[in-house]
Amino acid sequence: xxxxxxxxxxYGALSSALPVVQDGEQAAEKDMEFAKKFxxxxxxxxxxxxxxxxxxxxxxxxxxxxxxxxxxxLEVTGKLDSNTLDAMKKPRCGVPDxxxxxxFAMSPKWRKRDLTYRIQNYTPDMxxxxxxxxxxxxxxxxxxxxxLTFTRVYGDSADxxxxxxxGSHGDYIPFDGPGQQLAHAFSPAxxxxxxxxxxxxxxxxxxxxxxxxxxxxxxxxxxxxxxSDVLGALMFSTYQPVEPQxxxxxxxDTEGIQQLYGTPGDYDGGGDSDDDLLPTNIPEVILLxxxxxxxxxxxxxxxxxxxxxxxxxxxxxxxxxxxxxxxxNSISSFWVTLxxxxxxxxxxxxxxxxxxxxxxxxxxxxxxxxx
Length: 371
What we know:
This protein is α/β, with parallel strands linked by helices. The protein is built from 8 helices and 19 strands. It has a 6-stranded mixed β-sheet, covered by helices on one side. Strands 12-16-15-14-13 form a 5-stranded antiparallel β-sheet, with no helix packed on it. Strands 1-19-18-17 form a 4-stranded antiparallel β-sheet.
């Protein structure tokens, strides 16, 4: 009888413990899947990998974890420890962390000094006057240290459009709901527009997500700045809930924006014109008519966020949707080891990524890598 009671107690304890182990395993798998998606989006590969390795890779590469840890100032272990996971899960900007420069590649910037912006819609979380004030203050942070001015316009088209949206909203970069990705903005090469995730709770204080703090960061992207690896800089990738009235640009932010536009009073441009809407520093611009040879055949053609990419030999041409010009780049500028043509190219909209194929090798590129 004692043996029977012992066996019943033993198996009862064992069966009640099993779900706990299973939940732990499921949590570990969930964290691993989250970390993989985080690294793929914010720390994309810049070197080609084999098709087989890319398809069947089930873990997060240690070198990518080390890269992320170094960028964030964490202990560089190459292991997916709790501190690294906690950092990954912090609310943040949707723009990738890695880039060749503090500015976007090719350093695109606005040619005109006097920029206009338009608020397309409002969040129901805040009074419209508070939204207007937060946006105006965010622009002022940048105008105080540059020769730029920012003027709001109503009804007419503006240089920079500002809107609140949720989920998929037409730019191939869907928001993820409340929590991690708060907003994103496009570089001057893509028009500088700014989108805020309506799923967040926007506030004028720190009881929710402060609109002024996030807007000031995103406007830095609209003007041409990439993420900074300096913790404490406004352009660091994560949301830093400091008291709004105390926010000032970090020295790193100021140096980055003045590298593009100079200091207040510095301006070497002429009067504003329609052509000034185009960003500067776009290399080797070629007219559309130069590519109309009936005998011209491309190696591959694909799309990326609405623009069209043409590949021929060791070059890539980019047709932007809102301009009449075409930009020419060397493929090796983002696939360093490739000096010849590619075999194929394919966009995966869900991943916001283009895959390039050469023999058994594959490289993936994201907009932030070639902006």
